[in-house]
UniProtKB/TrEMBL annotation:
Keyword Plastid part of the UniProt annotation: no
Record Pfam families: GST_C, GST_N
Protein name: Elongation factor 1-gamma 1-like isoform X2
Stretches assigned to the GST C-terminal domain: 87-217
Keywords carried by this UniProt record: Elongation factor, Protein biosynthesis
PROSITE patterns the UniProt entry points to: GST_CTER, GST_NTER
Positions with biased composition (Basic and acidic residues): 222-242
Protein family according to the UniProt entry: Belongs to the GST superfamily.
Record-annotated GST N-terminal domain positions: 1-82
Molecular function as annotated in GO: glutathione transferase activity; translation elongation factor activity
Domain of life of the organism encoding this protein: Eukaryota
């Protein structure tokens, strides 16, 4: 049985495994006719992932959910895979950057992206907070990349795959050129990575978003209905103020 990945081909989390598979010579089939919100909510799917989330990888030995776990599994299918570095300390650094990408980059890009694209309610204060946390993380990443072509060692590792897939959602959805210009080493890194043949096979040509999507319209607010006594109090207050 081939490995089957359940998700749409462009899903931000599914692409981690697909790119890792290209680097590792592993064949993955993306499930045909996958419909987000339908295919992942069937009883058969819920049996494989109780949250009904994607991606999910069906293997000979059982299903795996969580995109980082799937990408790690795919990477380990190739013995001594250079994607996992060449020493114990490189392995440690790779895991460190995978966590950093997940907790410090992906979290804040998602908090910015989803409301702006209408997938979650928009709150200005929440967006401000997300952008500020993201800038802090990108600043740290930029400093590291000023002296390093790749996150760890001298070639692409799984950390670069996961970091680039996380940055991808930002570059295509919310991080305009005027935003990323503040982080020139991150820009250089991102464009170098997505133009590598193994990334290009999965992502195709990547285009940075030109402008932030406009803010969603504010939800309609019903006028507050005052009770009789409240109306009388309001009247009195207004009279006093006249
Ligand atoms: N931590 C999970 C996140 C998975 C996730 O949130 N997937 C979204 C799509 S990107 C999903 O399936 N949402 C559908 C739902 O929540 O029902 C991973 O990395 O795989």
């Amino acid at each position: 049985m081939a490995l089957v990945l359940h998700a749409t081909r462009t899903n931000k989390n599914a692409i981690k495994a697909l790119v890792a598979a290209e680097y590792s010579g592993v064949r993955i089939e993306v499930s045909k006719n996958f419909q987000m919100g339908v295919s992942n909510k069937t009883p058969e799917f819920i049996k494989m992932n109780p949250l009904g989330k994607v991606p999910l990888l069906e293997t000979h030995d059982g299903p795996i959910f969580e995109s980082n776990a799937i990408a790690r599994y795919v990477t380990r299918l190739k013995a001594d895979n250079p994607l996992y570095g060449s020493s114990l300390i490189e392995f440690g650094f790779i895991e460190q950057w995978i966590d950093f990408a997940t907790m410090e980059i992906d979290t804040w890009i998602a908090e910015w992206f989803y409301p702006r694209h209408g997938f979650k309610p928009y709150y200005a204060v929440a967006e401000e907070g997300a952008v500020s946390c993201l800038k802090r993380a990108l600043g740290a990443l930029n400093t590291h990349l000023a002296a390093n072509t790749y996150l760890v060692g001298h070639s692409v590792t799984l950390a670069d795959i996961i970091m680039t897939c996380n940055l991808y959602l930002g570059f295509i959805g919310v991080m305009t050129k005027s935003f990323t210009a503040e982080f020139p080493h991150v820009e250089r890194y991102f464009w170098t990575m997505v133009n590598q043949p193994n990334f290009h096979k999965v992502l195709g040509d990547v285009k940075q978003v030109d402008s932030l999507p406009p803010l969603p319209p504010l939800p309609k607010q019903e006028p507050v209905k005052l009770k009789k006594e409240e109306e009388q109090v309001a009247e009195k207050v207004m009279e006093r103020e006249r």
